[in-house]
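Weekly puzzle thread! Below is a chain. First person to post its structure in token form gets bragging rights.
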Amino acid sequence: MLIDLHAHTSGISTCCRVPAPDIIKAAQDAGIDGIVLSNHYQRHYVKNGDAAAFAERYVKEYEYTKACGDAAGFKVFYGMEVTMELHSNAHILVYGVDPSFTLKYPETYAMTMADLYALVKENGGMLVQAHPFRGGKDVLQDLAYLDGVEANSHPLYDATHVEKLTKIAQSAGLILTSGGDYHADTHRAHCGAYLPDDITDTHGLRDFLLSSETMDIEIQEPGEMQSRRVTYVRHPAV
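Winning reply:
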């Protein structure tokens, strides 16, 4: 099954233009079997300094989106896209944690990369940096605090940077993922990672990503209407 590992809904991510049912339909129409709902998690969305209240809203949006997905026969996995305010506002995708993690630790956006990595690993999760070279910038974080890097297929970005990211990921034995970062502000890219059909939750997703020596991903370069399949090898033969 093809799962887009980076998706948003307007219920939390206000930069996204449409709600969960439309996000799901667009993905299905593009031939995608599921998404990781990785809405933005950042101080900007916290009202009156009440991070706990925001965390509750964040989890409720996931639960709503999951229910919409279940009704449509579409998989929705739990995730987060944390904006690291102490690290050039780098966007870090969190996989493998339950909603209870978000409720227990509502101020992850204020942590250092080292502290977030330690906390997420302690709670059975993993970190992947989203689009580290977006817009010609380089906000790639210390690879010691990452489990993977993302080739992002958002049509308005400059490139997926898949070749560059492949070399970086292989240099540290990290995984390479693929996400669309769809906001309904342009056409829906056909992209994601090919996962076994028997993965049913974020824990299974994490286990597969962390253990896989090879990863088949689908990417779609900006300006191109056709996607292509890439096989990533974590430890290529010398």
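Puzzle host: Confirmed. Bonus trivia for everyone else. The chain has one domain: 2-233.
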